[in-house]
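Hi Y.,

Following your request, here is the sequence exactly as I used it, all 692 residues.
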Amino acid sequence: MAMALYALTIFTGSFLLFQVEPLIGRYILPWYGGGPAVWTTCMLFFQVVLLAGYGYAHLATRLGRRKQGYLHLALLLAALPFLPIAPSPELWKPAPGDDPALKILLLLLANVGLPYLVLSATAPLLQHWFVRSFPGRSPYRLYALSNLGSLLALLSYPFLVEPNLILNRQVAVWSWGFAFFACACASCALLLAPKNESEPQSEGDATPAAAPAPRLPLASFFEWLLLSALGSVMLLATTNLLCQDVAVVPFLWVMPLVLYLATFTIAFESERWSNRLVWGVLMVLSFAAACYQLMPQHAGNLALMIGIYLTALFTCCMACHGELARSRPDPRQLTAYYLTISLGGALGGLFVALLAPLVFNDFWEYPLALVGSCLVLFFAWRRAGVFRGSHRLLPVTLVVLQLALVLFLSYHVFMTLNGSLASFRNFYGVLKLYTDSDAVGKRLVLLHGQVKHGWQYAGARKDIPTAYYGPYTGAGLALALHPHRLSADPGQRALRVGVIGLGAGTLATYGQPGDLIRFYEINPDVIDVAQRYFSFCRDSRARVEFVPGDARIVLEAELKQKHPERFDLLVVDAFSGDAIPIHLLTRECFAIYRQHLKPDGILLVHISNKYLDLAPVLRTQGRAVGYLPVAFKSPGSAGAGTEPATWMALIPDLAFLNPAEVSLRADVNLAPDPKPLVWTDDFASLWHVLKK
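Below is the corresponding structure, written out as tokens. Let me know if you'd prefer a different format.
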């Protein structure tokens, strides 16, 4: 009975521990721009608090058994007032100029800090209690059970929890689950304490399990630290790569984390599942494929890209965590061992979430993780004696191949730096500038991730609209042939235009005297680059304004002003690469757009995307606010310096389609969709919009 209680408590605690991560991340994602760094910062917090939980468990084991139980009971009771864990929007939504990373860390600390600390300490502390209660029984099976609970929590969230429960219900269910866990954990604590502290509870207290543990060499702690840190860096760097070019959604957070935890479960279940040579070979092959995928010219196939990066993550973590499992110490060193692994994970999170954006001007942590994994595994294999004896040819060959990968990655980094005019990185991603020439002439190009976000030609062609904003695109037609532009009264022709997403500022070329073009831009580096390196905004005949901050939060705040701005045209063009900030496409956000538009105003959304067909979402959201959806697809022209583009115009009536230039290029779909695709702040699914 006691063993079943231990197993139930550890499983429940681990399930709740990893269920709250995507839940709270999904809750606050719309408040902080919807970028990959939101999840990376959340992961950093969870890793640091996990470290604190393991540290608490390690120190608590120094106390007497009764004191351990009562201390943990007190901590459980202290965590209950934090329920439910939903953060208050009034308190925690950021204001323009706030440091997003710091604000996220403070939010998580205030709302889930103590409950998460209690859950973090559960697995190592209860395994220690298990060793004391059942001497001679290995606790590492409970560690595998703990990871199984974590895996089920992560897999259930995107497939079962998120599609079927709104966020407030998710919070409520999780809070009731925590209350159940607290009761089970309290039962374990009460069972632990003997009736008389001076008397052993069982013969096990006098067994070697309670004797002082042997001292471990410092190299062992160093090895555990490096192996766990490399796994953590690979996890977060892989998640960044996936999210920056697709979307920041729980599925793409969860799958890397599922594979990461699965490697712990497999490696600690039995050594037969983590053969060094098998995983060494697979790691080298997957790393070679990842190096191939890193080249910009090889981006394009979504399934292939996800498969390659996830395979590289899995093989790397299997190799690293297999070495961790092999080097596990005597059970009396259990909490120190887990504490060191947790410290390595936290250091990896600190490196990716905080240090890398400050030190690097690109996502160099991923190639560094590939290189570091090769070097650390060589160190671990050397300590384990893999290179001794008659069967050393294969491991030596693997090391040679790993060194070849290191040289290739070094060359890749050198060539990337050599071709870049300037590069900028912050919380919101990486911007690059470079110069080249095409059929039109010499140009300055702006990249966000691997996707071009605009360019400007030199000399006499510097004022032509380029990229996705040519004269025959949806944007060009709306700005040049808006019904107000064609008014018989010259005083009515000026437009008030709001643009969500600045890029190079290309849309400013359409400005006319008397116009106002207001750009809403979350990334301060984009505003700086557009003003310093491109002249579209400086040379515009319109009055151009820049509003920093997340567009949704700023627009919502502007509605509370006495006379909020009302636009003739509102352009949504805030997609970084092929990633989409989903919070800008939800029903709640479209209600905000509608309030900022004049009665005859037009909402225009840029939906060009390699992977996702967003048209069904736009049609549903537009009709919900009383608009008619009209698609504009333009093929692009190398001679004109434009790219193929897809725009969706949501119009209040058919007046915009009167000019022949517009109607000939419009794809009008007035029939209602048989299955409307509604995205809300509580629910959004990419499965229905993936391109075949």
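The chain has 21 helices and twelve strands.

Thanks again,
Q.
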